[in-house]
Amino acid sequence: MDIQQIKYILEIARTGSISKASENLFVSQPHLSANLKKIEDELGINIFERTHRGVLATKEGQNFLKDAQSLVKSFNHLEMKYAFNNKQIQSLSISARRSSYLTLAISKYINQMLLEQEHLLVKYSECTNCQVIENVNNGNADVGIIRFSSEYRDHFEHQLHSRYIHWRKIYQTSYVVLMEQTHPLAHHRILNYEDLIQFTEVVHGDFEDNLFLNEFSESRLGLASKQKIYVYERSSLLDFIANVQGSYAWTTATHPRTLDMYHLVERPVNSIQSECLDYIIYKKDHVSPELLGQLGQVIDLTIEDLMSLQ
């Protein structure tokens, strides 16, 4: 059993699927299954229980996964500490919700750091709010960025406070509807929520981006789009909106360059009181104040640039 095989097992556990894990790891499914069986035989336990929906960790498997996570974390720490033949290396691990302005900001930050650092290692992962918080809490990410609807502020701040995670609000904006330029509603400057019911909604597959909207539509209007497409990747969401006739998605301000690339437009909607909040989160002992300040400044400037283009 080696560290790579352990990482294989952790990815299977994270995705709950051998096939999905093999895609993420860029290895064949038979190769991944063979490595899993080899480790299970070596340990004399069943790490996972196979079901028609995927795999679930057994009780023994849960104990193994907990130890494996700790081992991989220690290994990564050693790898980064002694990388490049003990030459000094600036490293940063970021975990964040999907957002086009964030990737733009991180790109600017990397360009800035490349001018200052001979050796630079940046790890950037996109995942759900819960995963971002967990990554920051267990040290797998130095910095996290979460996004949620304003009515869930108390919930998320409680989650952060209970884990001794610090936060700062970096962005607050209204939700808008994203649609193709030839959409039947595109000629309206402002939409009513009822206008959207007959059209197909494209939703992020983790549900969190549109959680507020589901509650809004069901509890206040009793209405919701009857046709929905759930996707996970932002690029897939944009492709669907651009190509599925009459589709739309709830989102925040999109960079004009992206709108032009996909031939999309944004429209505000009446009677939507909820706003989108972005928090940068961190633990004081996991990231230096200087590095955090530099990253925060780049994000702030990127947001200012985006708002000036609206």
Describe this structure in words.
This protein has 310 residues and is of the alpha/beta class. It is globular and about 65 Å long. Helix 1 crosses helix 2 (18-25), helix 1 packs across helix 4 (59-81) and helix 5 packs across helix 11. The longest helix is centred in the N-terminal third of the chain and has 23 residues, at 59-81. Helix content is 46%, strand content 22%. The chain is built from eleven helices and twelve strands. A five-stranded mixed sheet has the order 4-3-5-12-6, sandwiched between helices. It has three domains: 3-61, Arc Repressor Mutant, subunit A; 87-170 and 276-308, 3-Layer(aba) Sandwich (D-Maltodextrin-Binding Protein, domain 2), CATH 3.40.190; 176-273, Periplasmic binding protein-like II (D-Maltodextrin-Binding Protein, domain 2), CATH 3.40.190. The relative contact order is 0.13.
Count of discrete domains: 3
- Major sheet attributes: 5 strands, mixed
| Biggest sheet: strand arrangement | 4-3-5-12-6
Give the CATH architecture of the largest domain.
3-Layer(aba) Sandwich
What is the chain-wise order of helices and strands?
Answer: HHHEEHEHEHEHEEEHEHEHEEH
End-to-end C-alpha gap: 54 Å
SSE class: alpha/beta
Helix content: 40-55%
State Rg: 22 Å
Task: Give the oligomer, counting copies of the same chain as homo and different chains as hetero.
Answer: single chain
Q: Given the C-alpha coordinates, what overall shape results?
A: globular
Q: Name the CATH class of the largest domain.
A: Alpha Beta
Return residue spans where pLDDT drops below 50 for at least 5 consecutive residues.
Answer: 207-223
What would the CATH topology of the largest domain be? Answer: D-Maltodextrin-Binding Protein, domain 2
Give the full name of the CATH homologous superfamily of the largest domain.
Periplasmic binding protein-like II
What percentage of amino acids are in beta strands?
Answer: 15-25%
How many β-strand stretches?
12
Mean pLDDT, to the nearest integer, reads: 82
Number of helical regions: 11
